[in-house]
Amino acid sequence: MKNIFLLFGMLILACTTSSAQFREDPILNLQNEDKNFLNWGYYLGFNQYDFQFEYKNDIGRDILVEKSFGFNVGLIGEMRINEFLDARFEPGLLYTSRNLGFPGFTTQADAIREVRSTYIRFPLLIKASTRRIGNWKPFITGGVYTSMNLGSKEDSLDDNSSGEFRMKKNVYGYELGFGIDIYTEYFKFSPSIRGVFALTDELVPDEDPNSPWTGNINAMRTRGIFINFTFE
């Protein structure tokens, strides 16, 4: 987590320093950029996803989650509400991978489950910005999303007894974030960091109610961190 925040800070510093956005009297770029009723753009970025587990009984042995970095890409449609508020629709594609380590097994084939997920996301967000300061403008954003997990295996007839870890296809949640709009000569560049939190249980339990993999799980929800780089 510290590495993500450090990278984000270094990227912002490099962008703003190289283009002299923070000097006292900058030449204002794209002065009418935010006055259009509708704006369009796209974003690229990467993510790190985790799981939050709720257990039926506290047996002192939690499921371990090995996280990795994934990538995300998408489009942006923005509708201006007023000088400080915008409504945004940010549909996108996201790929991530996690390894789950289940306690109580003696063999790796039983203990480890690799969870590869490809999500199609549909976030509806509100962006609240400060007044523009030269060629930059801080903002916060938040809202809700729905997503489809194309790698869920929800309809599979196999479960963990056959080596198949299943998840629900449809996920609902919310996200919160902050960032900076940087006005360059030709486009608006906006690095941001987001936290995403699922509200719905994503686990499809095994057929056996006493399954050593899912029998003690009451709920499993995704949470994660995004770093997005937006171009408008």
Structure description:
The protein is mainly β. Helix content is 9%, strand content 52%. Strands 1, 2, 3, 4, 5, 6, 7, 8, 9 and 10 form a ten-stranded antiparallel sheet that branches. The radius of gyration is 21 Å and the shape is elongated.
Order of helices and strands: HEEEEEHEEEEE
Specify the overall morphology: elongated
Count of individual helical segments: 2
Largest sheet: 10 strands, antiparallel
> What's the overall average pLDDT, rounded?
89
Radius of gyration: 21 Å
User: How helix-rich are the residues, as a percent range?
Assistant: under 10%
Contiguous runs where pLDDT drops below 50 for at least 5 residues: 16-21
Structural class by secondary-structure content: mainly beta
N/C terminus separation? 28 Å
What attributes characterize this protein structure?
232 residues, mainly beta, 10-stranded antiparallel β-sheet, 2 helices, 10 strands, elongated
Set out the fold topology.
Layout: H1 2-18, E1 38-55, E2 64-67, E3 69-80, E4 85-89, E5 92-101, H2 108-111, E6 112-129, E7 136-149, E8 170-183, E9 188-198, E10 217-231
